[in-house]
Design a protein that fits this description.
six-stranded mixed β-barrel; alpha+beta; elongated
């Protein structure tokens, strides 16, 4: 019967002006601290999600979901392997490829690159590289045409563009097979791509698979097969199932294994940032303890009167839980509103700051992504809000218990 009364008194205490302005100030500081902590946590988690999404999309632009290759680096009789892999119910598409290292030269400028030979019509089905082309087309890669597609950063470094030519230097064995001699070939630039990841934009070139196989002396062999599967998070299981159906031995890999250290580090960073910024919310939430303890001291006489009128200990506890919870709720909601607004506009806001002050927070020659992406997940917002409010609710328990322990006779002795 006292719950409505406790709720009414708690709300009244929360919104009433106090004689002790210091208590009101501490209450505002608690709300502001919770709001700032929640907003910072939502923004940072959204930015970390954005980084992971951008990196994953950039990687999957050049790295397929899964890869089958020969134990020695070459795959013989690959047509049969292609047929078996394509027949798996969870494999969407398969594409052959040839990989090899080379040096690309233009004038006095030299750069080491990874050469990838592709079959354009099959490559578009296993990767989204075609969506990252800024000039030219994958269809410009034709058998024996010697056309080459460069990353944007590499093209700028070499000072070449569409219609220009570059020289590839690869190693080949001599007639005795004991030494390696350089092999030079001239290639016209028929396309440029920009993945937004410097390691690929500056270190990857594309040729037609026929030209690449001739360049590395593979004849009718290839380096392996690239697979696109129905669920990229099940790529490891699917490629293992495909390998078990093959008659010979093959090496299997998937996109998570090829970049395992990076994704593990990213997940650990996100967890640590959540913990660190969560401590900010925790400190602000426990400011409620000091606020309510001072309120209990200030309202000792009022509490004693309520007890003498018949309010139970549970009713008194409910009064201060309501008051502390209201402080936490206001701070949490303000933080959610501010955090969501900031997370949705952080990219444009950072770009405006960089333009206005002439600075760059993420240098493209250091970081794989030179902008600050954001990917807001509402489930993260809900989790953060729930954790913050739970901490605030927890912080009200001790002051509320202390208020309920007030002895009316002692509190009213000097009133």
């Amino acid at each position: 019967m006292f719950l409505p009364l406790s709720l009414w008194i708690g709300l009244r205490y929360a919104r009433a002006r106090r004689r002790n302005h210091f208590i009101s100030f501490i209450s505002l500081i608690s709300m502001a601290g919770i709001a700032v902590g929640v907003a910072a946590l939502i923004t940072v988690v959204a930015v970390m999600n954005g980084f992971e999404k951008e990196v994953r999309q950039g990687i999957l632009g050049t790295v397929s979901h899964a890869t089958l290759s020969g134990p020695s680096g070459t795959l013989r009789d690959w047509e049969e392997t292609f047929r078996i892999a394509a027949a798996h119910p969870e494999v969407i598409a398969v594409a052959p490829f040839v990989n090899g290292g080379a040096m690309v030269i233009e004038g006095r400028k030299v750069s080491g690159v990874m050469v990838r030979g592709i079959l354009p019509e099959a490559e578009t089905r296993v990767a989204d590289l075609s969506h990252h082309l800024v000039a030219g087309s994958l269809d410009a890669l034709v058998p024996n045409g010697q056309g080459i597609i460069l990353g944007r950063v590499l093209a700028e470094r070499l000072g070449v563009g569409m219609g220009g030519q570059v020289t590839l230097v690869t190693a080949r064995g001599d007639t005795s097979g004991t030494d390696t001699l350089p092999k030079l070939s001239r290639h016209p630039v028929v396309g440029l791509f920009n993945l937004g990841m410097r390691q690929y934009d500056s270190g990857l070139v594309l040729l037609h698979i026929t030209d690449a196989a001739r360049l590395f002396g593979l004849d009718d062999q290839i380096s392996g097969l690239r697979l696109k599967v129905t669920d990229l998070y099940q790529a490891r299981r699917i490629v293992r199932e495909v390998a078990q159906e093959l008659p010979g031995h093959v090496s299997v890999s998937d996109w998570t294994r090829q970049n395992a250290n990076f994704f593990i580090a990213l997940a650990q960073q996100r967890q640590m940032m959540f913990i660190i910024l969560g401590l900010i919310v925790g400190v602000a939430a426990f400011n409620i303890v000091s606020t309510l303890v001072m309120v209990v001291t200030d309202k000792a006489a009022a509490i004693a009167i309520l007890r003498t009128l018949g309010m139970t200990r549970a009713g008194v506890i409910a009064v201060f839980i309501v008051q502390g919870s209201l402080i936490g709720l206001v701070g949490t909601m303000a933080g959610i509103v501010g955090g969501v607004a900031l997370a949705l506009h952080v990219e444009s806001l950072v770009a405006a700051i960089e333009t206005h002050f002439g600075v760059q927070f993420l240098a493209p020659d250091v970081y794989p992504i030179s902008r600050l992406p954001s990917d807001l997940h509402w489930i993260d917002v809900a989790h953060i809000g729930l954790v913050a409010f739970s901490l605030c609710l927890l912080a009200t328990l001790y002051p509320a218990w202390r208020a309920a322990s007030t002895r009316p006779a002692e509190a009213l002795r000097y009133e």
